[in-house]
Amino acid sequence: MLDVDDLIDDPETRVIVCCGSGGVGKTTTAAAIALRAAERGRQTVVLTIDPARRLAQALGLRELGNHPRQVKVEGFDPKGELWAMMLDMRRTFDDMVRAHAGPDRAEQLLANPFYQTISTSFSGTQEYMAMEKLGQLAATGDWDLIVVDTPPSRSALDFLDAPTRLSSALDGRMIRLLTAPAKAGGWGLRKVVSAGFTMFAKAVSTIIGGQLLADASAFMQAFDTMFGGFRERARKTAELLRSKGTAFLVVASPEPDALREASYFVDRLSAESMPLSGLVANRTHPVLADVPANAAITAAERAESRAPLAAAVLQLHADRVALAEREERLLARFTRAHPEVPIVRVPALPSDVHDVAGLRDIGDRLAPTD
């Protein structure tokens, strides 16, 4: 059985990454783990990539920004500290440019219309900026535990590929053609290195417009000097994710689609040599009363005419037993496919988690004592 306390009490655990499909409770799980770690003495920061405000609301904060904010609310007096933040993709990209491009070149890049477009919409930008922010948090040394809440669905693991994909895109043939005029002695787009590029430029200008092509060329000229550092930081963060101090937790509800996605995550993490610690089976429905479903249904039928309330309760119990048995079959199927993956079951709560007390309750259920 997975025991989250074993992870957070181990001083060698420096990063916990919660991944899984959408709607399974990753944000709540990440926040509960971070809160529990802080209460047990860790200097903890939780980073969410989910733009929803659930994390801020549960921590008693009006909003979260792109830089960590310490959580201080009534009834929360941890042995350690808890900080929280939400990734702002554009601001992270801007900060990276300012930090590594130099003042003059940074302003040139930030004002470029092509940069303003790709910093929010280029494929892989969000995942790469998540890697960049994780690397920044780790580099400060201010926290001894970083908890990461990832985007939903299979994109939750796209940040493993993001540095390679973004580097390849920015270093690809089309981008190199865009850069060629700027590298050809500053002659600009009117004088290019070959007739072939002239034809290319005309074709692209027809499709995307000459000004955008000029902006792209100017952007790549300015960006070229910081590209090496761009890739080097991504490499270091990738090494961090593969290190002994990182633990991946796959979060899933006991539903076929969610567990199918969980199997994908487990296989992918194994293929990438990522340190998987276990599966959080969230929102399960355990049965507390030891009454078989068939017996409850029979008793409900007998009581229907003379005790309708009792009959309704018995029918609800029978439905709950059937649901619990279905969930157990699904989880057993997952275990047969992945016998090496420990599981912790977190029962569904009667209402949504919206405060520290609710997060603390989830934390207790992530670390069962029996």
Automatic annotation (TrEMBL):
Known CDD domains for this protein? ArsA (cd02035)
The record's GO molecular-function terms, alphabetically, read: ATP binding; ATP hydrolysis activity
User: Upper lineage ranks?
Assistant: Bacteria, Bacillati, Actinomycetota, Actinomycetes, Pseudonocardiales
UniProt xrefs under PANTHER family? ANION TRANSPORTER ATPASE-RELATED (PTHR10803:SF26), ARSENICAL PUMP-DRIVING ATPASE ARSENITE-TRANSLOCATING ATPASE (PTHR10803)
Q: What is this protein called?
A: ArsA family ATPase
- The organism encoding this protein is Amycolatopsis alkalitolerans
| Pfam families, A to Z | ArsA_ATPase (PF02374)
Instruction: Provide the ArsA/GET3 Anion-transporting ATPase-like domain boundaries.
Output: 13-289
Tell me the superkingdom of the source.
Bacteria
